[in-house]
Amino acid sequence: MDFKRSIGPIGLLFAGISSVIGSGWLFGPLYAAQIAGPAAVVSWILGGLLMIIIALTFAELGSTFPVAGGMIQFAQFSHGPLVSFMIGWMVWISSVAVAPVETIGLIQYAANYIPGLVRSVQDTHVLTHLGILAAAAIMFLMCMLNYYGAQFFSRSNSIITAIKLIVPIATIFLLLFSDFHLSNFHAAKVGGFSPFGWHGILAALPLGGVIYSFIGSNTVLQLAGETKNPQRSIPLALIGSMVFCTILYALLQLAFVGAITPNTFASGWNTLHYTGDSGPFVGIMTVLGLGWFVMIVYADAIISPFGTGFVFTASTARVSYGLSEIGFFPKSLKKLTKKSVPMRSILLNFCVGLLLFLPFPGWQKLVSFIISCFIVSYIIGPISLIALRKTKPNEHRPFHLPFANPLALLAFYICNLLIFWTGWHTVSRMMIALSIGFIFFVIYCFRQKNIWHKQWNTSWWIFPYFTCLTVISYLGTFGEGKNILPFGIDFAVIAILTIAIYYLALFLRDRQS
Predict the structure, then answer these.
(1) Helices (DSSP H) in 8-64: which residue ranges?
(2) Range of 19-33, 87-101, 143-157, 166-180 with top mean pLDDT
């Protein structure tokens, strides 16, 4: 049984927007302001622009090859089993983690009026045993709602997204016109507009929840196999959701910084917090005397994360389906219900997602790990785009990216920078996850014949790539790096690595053709 193409262009666009507007808007402005100060506004604009450049490469790939679990299939088409497995493994790990992290966001806000769900450990909010049980119940509900199929998903998600948009937009207007302090953006005693310089602006991308908020648009690619008129719908949904959400998030950050009472950050932006800052917008609304709006924010704090988790529960099942399709996961995961839903994949992802509450109990800790894993999976977009133009030149390309070579190289460079900016603390854990995936791939290879020889010649570039990226991160200035590679010089080093690996990957693919 195949997937039914029952998601229209508006439904797909709403899926992209819904997966981008989740817990990020509830927590991101506070964490970004702590890291970058008022310049966090720049972080959101910059983050959106960088992710749009990456998305452009996937817009062509997605419209040319509209298949379920698209990111995995692109890697399989261009570079074979090893690359597709490693990319698929990271897509799966990071996608599985999104529903838990959105659920954590929901629970942290709910803890403001339901005691006993969250406790504070070393300035981090973590779930209690009761909180974990509540989170498991919420995630199970997401799974059950997905049982009713893509058409139900599209219609219900469109309604959820419309509701989700009302509250953040209303929040922007309330904060801008209630008690806006323009002086907050240039207060000299706390460092002015950019107290932590470009280092802070860039660090806020992965650590402040900026990039996490934008990575949700990849659900558009995972749902491509169930989309009507995918050649038109996929580019529209990918780029449209990114542009819209960049503007929305930048305005939210602007409104948040301006609405803060000046004495709240008198000791420095890095000390900014609110009592019970598991809900920063609740804190700022309370200070401004907008208590009537607090209950509306509480309601949206349930709807927004739940909506994003709902979308990712659907899209992650398609990732598992894609891994099963190319033989890496058991074939039984391909089995669809009468409503064309991969329910076995959904339940597998639910069980794995529950385990992530244990090592990553807090929102911010889990977010940085997800970002690094997602961005690793994004590297295949620019590389596969150019490789498949050469190996499959006759495929119909409804969306043909202009200036593809320089834009693909730039997109690959951006991916590498984003991984580097997550810092050594996160990159080291990401490499552990990659190593575990490689062990599974070796086991898979022992079950096949001649597979090493078939794919080694086009795939071995990933080993020097990940090794060099790990070393550079260890020497860098982000996330507990050794501060041996100075800030600024690291940009050039990453550029050299990008150019070398980009052309090596394409050369190996060309030589095999």
Answers:
(1) 9-20, 24-36, 40-64
(2) 166-180
Question: Helix 343-355 crosses helix 129-146 at what angle (to 10 degrees)?
Answer: 170
DSSP label at residue 477: S
Structural contact between residues 43 and 208, judged by C-beta atoms closer than 8 angstroms: yes
Give the closest residue to 285 by CA, choosing from 182, 184, 186, 168: 168
Please, how many CA atoms are within 13 Å of residue 368, restricted to the half-sphere of its CB? 24
- With vertex at residue 98, the alpha carbon angle to CA 125 and CA 365, rounded to the nearest 5 degrees, is 35
Q: Give how far Cα 390 sits from Cα of 33, 57, 145, 299, 476, Å.
A: 45, 15, 42, 51, 36
Cβ contact 305:23 at 8 Å: yes
H/E stretch holding 212:
helix 210-214
Tell me how many degrees the CA angle 100-218-85 measures, rounded to the nearest 5. 85
**Using CA atoms, how far apart are residues 168 and 26, in angstroms rounded to an integer?**
9
Sign of CA dihedral 306, 23, 341, 329: negative
Q: Is 125 helix (H, G, I), strand (E, B) or coil?
A: strand
Joined together, the tokens standing for residue 394 give 């006759």
- C-beta of residue 29 within 8 angstroms of C-beta of residue 237: no
Per residue in 115-166, pLDDT (tens digit) is: 888 777 666 667 788 888 888 898 888 888 777 655 565 566 667 777 778 8
pLDDT digits (tens, 9 = 90+) for 419-444: 888 888 888 888 888 888 888 877 77
Residue count of the chain, please give it: 513
Tokens representing 411 are: 């997109």
Whether the per-residue pLDDT at 277 is higher than 50: the answer is no
Tokens representing 28 are: 């991101």
Return left, alpha or beta for 196; rule: phi > 0 is left, psi -120 to 50 is alpha, else beta: alpha
Q: Provide the 10 A C-beta neighbour count for residue 504.
A: 14
- How far apart CA 180 and CA 264 sit, in angstroms, is 14
Helix-, strand-, coil-residue percentages of the chain, each rounded to 5: 75, 0, 25
Residue 31 has a pLDDT of: 86
Cβ-in-10-Å burial (0-12, 13-18, 19+) of 30 comes to: buried
